[in-house]
Amino acid sequence: MNSEQTATSDKSAPAIVLSIAGSDCSGGAGIQADLKTFAYFQTYGLTAVTSVVAEAPGSVVSVQAVSPEILEAQLSILNDSFQIQAIKTGMLANAGLCKIVANFLEDLASTETVAPIIIDPVLISSSGKALIDPEALNLYRQRLLPLATLATPNLDEAATLLDLPPITSHEEMDQAARKFTGKYQCMTLLKGGHLEGSDATDILWDGTSIHDFSSARIRNKNPHGTGCTYSAAIAALLAHEYPLLEAIAAAKEYISTAIEQSTILSDPSTGIDTLNHFPVGQNPDATI
Ligand code: PXL
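A: This is the predicted complex of the input protein with PXL.
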């Protein structure tokens, strides 16, 4: 949308954030998680749906990607109609859809649009199911990640995208975050949630300095959708023009509280919690 248009010139209008991601019918991950998080942070959420996933926490039963044409049409009408202030990508499903997203982001980069782009390189579900096809990995490497303001890989995704063996320590995380930025020319928030230890620490390498974001590890909680929710919170806070370090710190606090307040709402035998996207005790008015 052209900046002369007035839709968001009203100061009381909420910031607008776009999620390009898959639908998780169980509501913990994907566009559903993103929209809840955008609402929590008082932003107006838009979605361009890439795929529909039939799943419940702990089991993905079926995935159907949308056609490239309908993804392109969603992106085009949203961009023509709204002044988007931040974008996040999640599950992109296959190489054809990655190409549409790369074309869209490249077009934006060639205009005066300066919306930050957060790429969460979703490769497999928390239950271990591949959420993209192998050809799509090359598109992440060659076209998508170099367009990101910030990439938010977890340890497995970073190791895959860097062709490294498993990352198993804080020192290896530090090196991997630097390598990721060197290779893909984007800032890197490497999420260390799967590492052993009493803290869950994520490492940001912004190209010049390294920053740690730690929270106490929440034991016996294993919710689905934490990665989607975390990157959506960062996108929402960047849309509110938070500086990057403050956006990540506030998003980390939010996701930690959402994990702490998660409960098992679906099949108890899975032992997998559902996130509380609207945690109490964290007043959004106080964070925005
Ligand atoms: O958590 C990764 C993820 C992202 N997006 C969608 C998903 C999942 C996990 O299952 O379904 C749509």
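The first helix runs from residue 30 to 40. Residues 21-24, 29-30, 53, 55, 60, 90-91, 122, 125-126, 131, 225, 227-228 surround PXL (CB under 6 Å).
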